[in-house]
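Hey, why these numbers?
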Amino acid sequence: SLTYRCIHIRFFFIIPNCRQKFSSWVKLIYKNIYRPKSQSIDKIIDVFSKQTSNLTVVQVGANDGFNNDPICKFIIRDNWQGVLVEPQKYTYERYLYPLHKQNKRIYTINAAVGYEKGNMPLYKISFCDDRWATGLATFDKDNLIKMVRDGSIDRRAKKYGIPLPATQEEYITTENVAVINPSTIISKYNIEHIDLLMIDTEGFDYHILNMFLSAQLIPSCIIFEHFHFSEEEAEQTASLLSKHQFIYKKYKGNAIAILNKPEYSNIHALLNHD
C-alpha cells in the first residue's frame, strides 16, 4: 500500500548510513535513467535546473522533504543550494532535518513564513502524523474544517486504515509555530539570488508569493498551489505576476511562473507547447 511505501521510505532515509545510500541511489537514478513527462512541471524543473548553475532554492512548506516533493530529486541530482522551511516540529525533526543534515549546501528551518516575525497557530490533523495528514496543515482553519465536513478527511483516513476520533470536533488540533519573514531568511543565510521559490502552504500561497515579490530579491522561477485560491486571490496573483514580468501557466493543482527574460525562452516555449 501507499502507506507502507511512505513509512518504509521515511524509515530508510532517517537512518544515517541508509540516508547516504539513499542520496547516492537517487543521484544515480535521476542522472542516468529519469525522463520527466513532457507535459509536466517536473519537465520544466528538469530543464530549468540543468541550465541554471549553482541553483539557489527557497522552499516554503517543505514537509518531510521527500514524499510528494517535486524538487527533492533535483536537489540531490544537481547539487542545489538553498533553504527549506517547514513549521511542523515533528515532521521537521523526524524527517526533513535528518534528510539534509549532511548536506552543507542546504539549510533547513523549523518555522513558518509570515509578514512579521513572531508566532502563529497552525491548524492540523490531530490523530495522524502520516504524510497525507501533515500535508494538510494550514493557517486557514476554515479550509481544514471544510475538508472535515465534506468527508475528505474520513475518506483519506479510511484509505490508509487510520482510526478516526469519536467526534469531528476532535479532528483538528493547533500547533503554535515560530514565524519568520522573507527578509530574515535572505539576510540570515546570505542569499544573493533566488532561482526557484517553491510554495506549498495549503491556502496561504498567495500571501507567501506576495511577501517574496515585495522583498529585495525577485525569484527567477516560482511554483505554487493555485487550487485553494479564491477568485479575488487568483486575480491578484495574475496581476502581481504580470507586474513583475512573469509568464505563468496553471497545471493540475500547481502553477509555474518564469521571468520573461531571453535566457528562459526555451522554457517559455515549453509552457506554450504544453
